Amino acid sequence: MLLAAHHPRLKLLGVSTIHGNASLAHTTANAGSILTAIGVPHIPCYAGAAKPFCRDAVHAPDIHGASGLDGTSLLPEASVPPIENGNAIVAMRDALLAQPASRPWLVATGALTNVALLFATFPETAKHIAGLSIMGGAIGDGYTDAPFGHIRGEGVRIGNHTPWAEFNIYVGVVECDPEAAQSIFSNPVLAPKTTLIPLDVTHQVLATKAVQEKLLYGLSNTEGKRTSRVRQMFHDLLVFFAHTYSDVFGLVEGPPLHDPLAVAVVLFDIGAEDLAFDDRDGERWNVDVVTDGKHSEWDAERGQAGRIIIWESMGPRTAGLTELK
User: Fold this and answer.
1) For residue 270, pLDDT beyond 90
2) What is the set of active-site residues?
3) C-alpha to C-alpha distance for 274 and 4, rounded to whole angstroms
4) Phi and psi torsions of 284, nearest 5°
5) Which helix (H) or strand (E) holds 301?
6) Which end is more exposed in the chain, N or C (fewer Cβ atoms within 10 Å of the end residue's Cβ)?
7) Dist. CA 21–CA 27, nearest whole Å
């Protein structure tokens, strides 16, 4: 949200919250707190889906804490409450269609329930948007050389929720309606303009100690060691995330910067000069999601459910990150 709200080339139209890292009540409160902290409380914020279509919600307190945003005491209360007299899916449609055709982007950094509902209910939005950026999924099989980490006693894995699946995709596919989620990847209008940011990409961009220092003090303020409340708040959150990611997955260099990369895709598309993705000259892939497997706490029963499968390059575009300044 910080990048989307304050980059000079972007205009944040609104925020819809979703079940995921924590309950909808927590994620909605967190969104309002962040919007207030970064000085844009006027950005419309709507509570979206509280659970998947057909199962109970699954959360990730071991990674993000019980609130979904643990690690700091500096989060302010939202100065503007979420909009309660409107529907998040309708608000998403209205905000997107109010922009010129082929101009607005939709960025999904959580479970895909809201997104699947949007395109299923209002299919005209698929043709209207410039692109859809999704942070989610894990491919493996040497797609990139990103370090995936491991859980003690389990060895190397490619997923961060199961050995095969990333949290957002597992929750969005296995925990809800696989046909609805799969429609995002198979929609002939939407698929060519969809960019998936899997762990294979985000794990190439780690918030090392040097990155954490820049976040806390800025690029030109390291000698004076002065910081601001907002910088301290984000640093606290990142350090908490770094500790849990190190403890759970053994990535000690620093945690991956998942969600900012999904926004960075938009900057890449509009030709922003401060980002450089290697999209292999516009390479694209067909994307499928493994849905075979039972929802369970046991890997033997879950199988590879939620794993991303790619095949047959479709020609122009996706892949790795070469530089993030």
Assistant:
1) no
2) 258
3) 14
4) -135, 160
5) helix 299-302
6) C
7) 8
